[in-house]
Design brief:
This protein has about 210 residues and is mainly α. The protein contains 10 helices and no strands.
């Protein structure tokens, strides 16, 4: 029994050392992020990019470094680089859902609207974010995808009913009414061609808000 004690002590010491090294790396990365932000404020963008990159070299899971670097690339007018940063962030820190929004904006700037809308829709669904749904509806409108824009505003209307958000409810109801007029017969909810339960439910919602 006694012969097993040294190995247990060694294992504990290694564990403590690893924890200490991880904490030190995180602290160093946070300091580099702080420096990067200071350089951004001083309009020293090149140095800021280096500091963010150094922070990620030390701690590739630092969310502030990923967010800061991606936002800086966008501000510098480099959406392709920003997309690369946000994609890498999603691979290494998948819980950093704000990277979906960042990548969506980068892809939109690159003209890849379908991919941008997919990212933003995923984020909106995961977070239940009304502002993201609004932005998504705007993008659908810009792309001339009025049925998709209408469906998004119907979702916002249902959400407003659930949360008793009177302001959002009134806005969504007005917008849905206007979009129904624009879509007219091409709206599958108001003019169902298939009697399945989902379409019937959509038709009922459409009739209630008109």
């Amino acid at each position: 029994m006694a012969s097993g004690r040294p190995s247990r002590f060694v294992a504990l010491a290694v564990l403590c050392l690893c924890h200490s090294n991880t904490a030190a790396a995180g602290s160093s990365a946070d300091e580099l992020v702080r420096q990067a932000r200071a350089h951004e404020t001083a309009h020293e963008e090149d140095i800021a990019v280096r500091r963010y990159t150094e922070a990620l070299t030390i701690d590739s899971s630092n969310p502030d470094a990923w967010a800061g670097l991606g936002a800086l690339r966008m501000r510098l007018g480099e959406p392709a680089e920003a997309e690369r940063v946000y994609s890498a962030a999603l691979e290494r820190v998948p819980w950093l859902r704000s990277s979906l929004v960042g990548r969506a904006r980068a892809r939109w700037a690159l003209g890849r609207h379908a991919q941008a809308e997919e990212d933003l829709e995923t984020y909106a669904e995961l977070q239940g974010d009304a502002a993201a749904y609004r932005a998504l509806a705007d993008w659908y409108g810009i792309d001339g995808r009025t049925p998709a824009q209408l469906a998004t505003w119907r979702h916002l209307l249902a959400s407003a009913l659930q949360t008793s958000d009177a302001v959002l409810f009134n806005e969504a109801r007005r917008t849905v009414r206007a979009l129904v007029i624009l879509v007219d017969g091409s709206d599958p909810a108001s003019s169902p061609v298939d009697p399945d339960p989902t379409r019937r439910a959509m038709a009922q919602i459409a009739r209630r808000v008109q």
